[in-house]
Amino acid sequence: MGFDIPEDLALLTGGGPETWAGISAAHLAAYERYAPIEPHHEVLEIGCGVGRDAIPLAELLRPPGRYTGVDVVRESIEWCRRHVTPRYPHATFGHLDVHSPMYNPDGRLTATEVTLPAADGSVDRALLQSVFTHMFPDAVAHYLRELRRVLRPDGLVFASMFVLSEPNRSLAQSTGAPLQFPVDHGGGCFFQDPQNPEGAVGYTPEAVERLCAAAELVLDQPVHEGSWTGRTGVPDGQDIVILRPGVRRTRRTRRTRRTRRLPGWRRTPGPG
Ligand SMILES: C[S@@+](CC[C@H](N)C(=O)[O-])C[C@H]1O[C@@H](n2cnc3c(N)ncnc32)[C@H](O)[C@@H]1O
Predict the structure, then answer these.
(1) What domain range is 196 assigned to?
(2) Which atom of ligand 1 has the smallest separation from the CA of 73?
(3) 1 part of a folded domain
(4) How many domains does the chain have?
(5) How far is the CA of 254 from the centre of ligand 1 (A)?
(6) What is the CATH number of the domain that holds 155?
(7) N or C: which end of the chain has fewer CB within 10 A?
(8) DSSP E strand boundaries for 96-203
(9) 210 Cα: distance to centroid of ligand 1 (angstroms)
């Protein structure tokens, strides 16, 4: 598309020039499969890097459709502002100065202080490609709450993750996959490398559901399993999780849920 992507910034997103176009095409195909994007949509991408998906999405979207990308790497955001927005004014970029040992060691905020740059109930598609795979539970919980806030009632979150189900774990073990997630962080969160904890972070399905439920988000589709375990015949590398807004829990629905969970429960007869 005629952009000269800086190699050092591309490398920060997990691949150089030789894989750039292939990964971008695979991402766009995955959106089409699981959470199709329409030209009029408002799209928010978290961890947009140096525009791998921003550029083709800006090409696809037509105002009033628009794209907003955020990332913690200031240089990548500045590059996108200088090169992408002038050509596609409906694509804008914001820097989140979040501390990340890997990506932004001098960052001044914690991830739990982030406010996503979108109005309540405005976003049709929120995209996170290989971002929750570098984040721990408090940060993921906060981002999910923010995503719930900005999502339209019929909006979807597309997030790639490492979902550590028992079948995924045993498959990864039997195929000798490079990622086994041996280190237990607690709360259903595991990571790969004690020297670089944020390098690869995974979650059990129960942890994914718990974090989503706390943010009033639910799985829209069964998890789409990726090939990181050595699984063959699947199109995605990481597992793909598609979320939609769940029902807001009022006092009444909370009471109803508790009653439903315990079918044998009977009110203890009171005095008189
Ligand atoms: C593996 S890269 C993927 C980049 C991009 N999604 C892609 O596929 O080309 C992970 C990205 O997430 C960004 N990131 C890490 N922690 C973040 C956070 N707390 N908030 C937003 N972005 C974050 C990194 O700076 C990096 O650009």
Answers:
(1) 7-260
(2) 25
(3) no
(4) 1
(5) 35
(6) 3.40.50.150
(7) C
(8) 123-128, 151-161, 183-186, 189-191, 201-203
(9) 23
